[in-house]
Design brief:
159 residues, alpha+beta
Length: 159
């Protein structure tokens, strides 16, 4: 059975997530060590609002994650204060729709927090996010890497 839950409810996955996240994204962040990645995730085990991380688990096995941060990265902090970050699905599990599930769960969480808009940046997944309703805001450079900065308007609940 596949479930998405807060890292706060599954803290035993911090070390695996730190390994995945650091391996995937350390070139984008100056001085971002594995220890810093782990410390950030440990902080997310204490919070279910902002910042936080959602994890996707199937049969007690970690398959992916996504985070909601106040800033990501520092170079883009003037754009907004709620960021989808670290969408990761274990390579052997890609193509099963888990990325879509994680993004939708995160946008629902953002809605529950009464956020109106969230942002992200990506170097190579613009079309994926556009297919989920995200729009391109601008292109930028993060630590010398060209990225697309995108936003998502949180739909208001019908009254």
């Amino acid at each position: 059975m596949v479930e998405i839950k807060f890292l706060a409810d599954a803290p035993s996955h911090v070390d695996q997530l730190a390994d995945w996240h650091h391996a995937q994204w350390h070139p984008l962040y100056v001085d971002w060590t594995h220890e810093i990645a782990r410390a950030e995730l440990l902080a997310h085990t204490q919070c279910k609002t902002l910042p936080t991380t959602l994890v996707l688990i199937e049969n007690n096995i970690l398959l992916g994650s996504v985070s909601l941060l106040e800033e990501d990265p520092v170079e883009l902090s003037a754009i907004g204060n709620a960021w989808l970050a670290s969408l990761y699905v274990k390579p052997s599990e890609r193509g099963r729709g888990f990325g879509v599930q994680l993004v939708k769960a995160l946008t629902q969480h953002a809605k529950a927090l009464s956020l109106k808009e969230i942002f992200l940046f990506t170097s190579d997944h613009k079309a994926f996010y556009q297919s989920l309703g995200w729009r391109l805001l601008q292109q930028a450079k993060v630590n010398g890497h060209q990225v697309d900065v995108m936003s998502y308007q949180i739909p208001e609940t019908a009254q």
